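Troubleshooting entry. Yesterday's outputs looked truncated, so today I'm pasting the complete records for two proteins to confirm everything comes through intact. If either block looks cut off, that's the bug. Protein one:
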Amino acid sequence: RDEFQAQVPDFVPLDMDTTVLASGVVEIALGASLIAARSRRRTVGLVAAGFFAAVFPGNLAQWIHHRDGFGLDTDTKRFVRLFFQPVLIAAALWSTGALRGLRK
């Protein structure tokens, strides 16, 4: 779990390991919901997009504080990664039809 702890911002009031475990539970629940709650795909897509937005400060903290994790061992790699978070958010909205639902 050390790799994940590199992404926990300093301002999170919980212990780093607790934060990692809690976010892991949320990720698993979201993944399971995407499979099981087919009738609620748009809602799950919105929640997933919100989750991806909520963890963005962790990616930012990893870059600002020069923390290695998951092969992100240079500031350039950590910086480039920041641009993929909006892609994840867009993918969650698009793939679940939530984006189409927001337009209506």
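Protein two, checking that the full record survives here as well:
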Amino acid sequence: MTVVVSGFEPFDGAGGNPSWETAARLAERGQELVGDRVVAVRLPVTFGGAWQVLDAAIRAHDPDVVVALGLAGGATRVRLERVAVNVRDARIPDNGGAQPVDVPVVAGAPVGYWSTLPLKASLAAIRAADVPVEVSSTAGTYVCNDVFYALMHHWGAGPGRRAGFVHVPGSDVVPIEDQAMAVAAVVRHALLGTPDPVLAGGTES
């Protein structure tokens, strides 16, 4: 089986991006951590352009599972994203200078898509590995959500498809090795088709 994992280039003046470091680490250790081939893809932080790069990788590698990663600034744990929404509302310009406000990712498309990854099974496995993790119900409205929505609209919502998005915190909060282990748990359960247990993962606000 083949897995595509994407991460982003640096943005907003940062010198690096842990989402790409984690994707690259997972590709290096794919057979060890996942048991299958993992292809890492580095995406530009640009609306539209990021999906084009990921789409090309999906077409080239015909993966069984796709997990897109992004940085959640200020986060204290790995965030398993539940839903992608059809809106672009950028607080800051992307790396190409675009700053869309209140426009759809895909005009005329559904308001949202659910992740098709086994989030609760992954949550339990990552907790068991003592890596801080939560299920999140918002991937924001920047390029991360943009890629998540486009992935689900164009590929991940199809029958039998397993795809979704995971936000990672800074590497000073959760080390890259732990981030890679967490994403590997998501990938393993997706490849196995593990059914989700009934496990509370909501938040109070």
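Both blocks look complete. Sanity check on protein two: The CA atoms of residues 24 and 134 lie 23 Å apart.
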